[in-house]
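Narrative of activities, Objective 1.

The group set out to show that a structural description can be obtained from nothing but a protein's sequence at a throughput compatible with the screening campaign. Below is one input-output pair from the validation batch, recorded exactly as produced.
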Amino acid sequence: MKKIILPTGLSILLLLAMAVPALAQKELVGVQVGDWFKYKAEVTQWESTMEFLPDNYLGPLILAENQTDAIWYNVTDITSGDGGDNVTFAIQYDWTNGTVTYATMVENVSTANQMIFIIGANMTSGEMVSDTYDFLNMNIFQYPARYINETIDFANPNATRETNVLEYDINILGAPYEYIFYWDKATGMRVWYWNHGDVPEIDFGTGTPQPAYEYTVVWELVDSSVEDLLVPDFTGPILLLTLMTITAPKVFLHRRKKLIT
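Output recorded for this entry:
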């Protein structure tokens, strides 16, 4: 195999050329203190011999994704951090049993993570939203870098907003997962999220294997203090046509087998 050796000066210039676009996006933040975002989360499919969710469950789902009426994210602080701005959210969970609980989350607009709740504002197709990283920091799986697939015009009753879309599939230790993300381009906030997984029986070393299960979970932004940031009804005919065009292989070819109530 032939090796190509570049002059040192040219090598440095090429490295700088690749690094500058990645660094340029990291400082962008599209929200401000006082902004709030209201989400509805729902597990639309759960197939397993085990209940949803047992006390000793280990996996990607949380009870709040199926036992809340609403989840509120309120921006309380924005600070400069390594690689990008840190956004602090005060989270309020409105549970279906009438109780309310609270939590705090600090999200960096450029830090690699699995859920990618917020990205840099005004990013475009082809830009990286999450770099590769060691999943669970256990040297068992390296999460790949993820990039925006396309930017679409997303119409709601008040305005048309540019929206960044990411779709990807991944296999972690024999379990296939599928993901779809929609982020509002101007704010960088996640406005829609869809995840499906088919997880085999796993023994975590407890002596009692966790049974296999298949699931689908959806997060949808239903209200916000940001002007014109309204997510349309995803069951409406126009939006269904849009989603079928973009995400048909994932969203609509998975039939809803068992609804959780």
